[in-house]
């Protein structure tokens, strides 16, 4: 059910300056690991981390908006130098509106990637929306683009590469790693 890259997607991707992400089900596979000591664990894919690093090198700003609040999420996002970290967020649209009001972004310059019903209202607000391959059916239908990769398995990297390629930045970024 992946939606292909259309001219419309490319035109939208060229305008993106801020890439926002859900966490559970997008940067992770959505599974929560409950440990005996009461802590909750998550696994983050290294490919997504590299995609975020490439985005930063290209000058994109990144952020996460998650309904969950967890030290493991906060630690990973800080490690990745994510600028906007909103955890325990009930109203994702309100957070994006706040970002637009306080920083120099327009809605059409924002991309968002999600996986579930809570993300659909955000899709209607931003310039470019992505759903991961294993998102819910309604979420996929609402998104501009559906990744081939599943959440927690490189979907963020795939979305970021699409944006960077549309902006003509990807090849130069790759060349810096091949030296």
Automatic annotation (TrEMBL):
<feature type="binding site">
    <location>
        <position position="115"/>
    </location>
    <ligand>
        <name>Mg(2+)</name>
    </ligand>
</feature>
<dbReference type="InterPro" id="IPR036412">
    <property type="entry name" value="HAD-like_sf"/>
</dbReference>
<comment type="subunit">
    <text>Homotetramer.</text>
</comment>
<protein>
    <recommendedName>
        <fullName>3-deoxy-D-manno-octulosonate 8-phosphate phosphatase</fullName>
    </recommendedName>
</protein>
<dbReference type="Pfam" id="PF08282">
    <property type="entry name" value="Hydrolase_3"/>
</dbReference>
<feature type="binding site">
    <location>
        <position position="24"/>
    </location>
    <ligand>
        <name>substrate</name>
    </ligand>
</feature>
<dbReference type="InterPro" id="IPR050793">
    <property type="entry name" value="CMP-NeuNAc_synthase"/>
</dbReference>
<dbReference type="GO" id="GO:0008781">
    <property type="term" value="F:N-acylneuraminate cytidylyltransferase activity"/>
</dbReference>
<keyword id="KW-0460">Magnesium</keyword>
<dbReference type="GO" id="GO:0046872">
    <property type="term" value="F:metal ion binding"/>
</dbReference>
<comment type="similarity">
    <text>Belongs to the KdsC family.</text>
</comment>
<feature type="binding site">
    <location>
        <position position="22"/>
    </location>
    <ligand>
        <name>Mg(2+)</name>
    </ligand>
</feature>
<dbReference type="InterPro" id="IPR023214">
    <property type="entry name" value="HAD_sf"/>
</dbReference>
<dbReference type="GO" id="GO:0016788">
    <property type="term" value="F:hydrolase activity, acting on ester bonds"/>
</dbReference>
<dbReference type="InterPro" id="IPR010023">
    <property type="entry name" value="KdsC_fam"/>
</dbReference>
<keyword id="KW-0479">Metal-binding</keyword>
<keyword id="KW-0378">Hydrolase</keyword>
